[in-house]
Write a structure and sequence with these properties.
eight-stranded antiparallel beta sheet, three-stranded antiparallel beta sheet, 216 residues, 3 helices, alpha+beta, elongated, 2 domains, Glucose Permease (Domain IIA), 14 strands
Length: 216
């Protein structure tokens, strides 16, 4: 199905960065400073690219669970999730570098059962222990099938700001935009044991569009 969210080319959280860099470039150009103007012009383009908000075609396959972010599959592991699910689950981790789209998307249709923000460290997001130790925001979803799906936004070495637009009790749809992590990060999605995973480590995925697994 088509992406139902009303999209703009840049998410609103990025507008101050784009405007600030762009305005500074105009000022330095007026002062006749070519080098700062060129650097600020590049910074303006980078901010506009980083905060881009692309349209996506959401799969309609029943039971499909889509990627919550753009990037590379960092891990597919069966493990015990001790904080929120308190049960064994399948963790699929996606590493987002600074050139990836950083708008985060809901993996499956359902109801938000909880949103929990945890302060923490800013380790390199690709480290295994970043899942537990880094600053993060956990979104628990009760899927229409009755399964619980946990989606965790994890800050990284450069990422210092996690944004979430959903709240407890809210109904959400597959592929819906729900948040943002600024400047490099990681997305962890925890699925029920028995889910059929269709991606592997090293695969590139697109948030809201690429299927990670099928709930069973």
């Amino acid at each position: 199905m088509a992406d139902q969210a009303v999209g703009i080319p840049i998410v609103k959280e990025g507008l101050p960065f784009v405007a600030g860099a762009g305005l500074s470039a105009v000022v330095t150009a007026g002062l006749g400073w070519p080098v700062p103007t060129a650097l600020l012009g590049l910074a303006t383009l980078f901010c506009a690219w980083f905060f881009r908000n692309p349209h996506r075609v959401i799969p309609e396959r029943p039971g499909a669970l889509v990627a919550s972010g753009d990037g590379r599959i960092l891990a597919v592991e069966e493990e015990f999730e001790p904080r929120y699910l308190k049960a064994r689950s399948i963790r699929i981790s996606i590493f987002l570098n600074v050139f990836d789209v950083h708008v985060n998307r809901i993996p499956c249709e359902g109801t938000i059962e909880g949103v929990t923000y945890q302060r923490g460290q800013f380790l390199i997001a690709s480290r295994p222990d970043a899942t537990i130790r880094n600053e993060q925001n956990a979104v628990m979803i009760r899927a229409g099938s009755g399964h619980q799906v946990l989606c965790v936004q994890v800050a990284g070495l450069i990422a210092r700001r996690i944004v979430s637009w959903v709240s407890t009790g809210e109904r959400v749809t597959r592929g819906e935009r729900f948040g943002l992590i600024r400047f490099g990060s990681r997305m962890d999605t925890f699925l029920p044991i028995g889910s059929h995973v269709v991606v592997k480590v090293g695969d590139r995925v697109k948030g809201g569009e690429s299927i990670l697994a099928e709930l069973r």
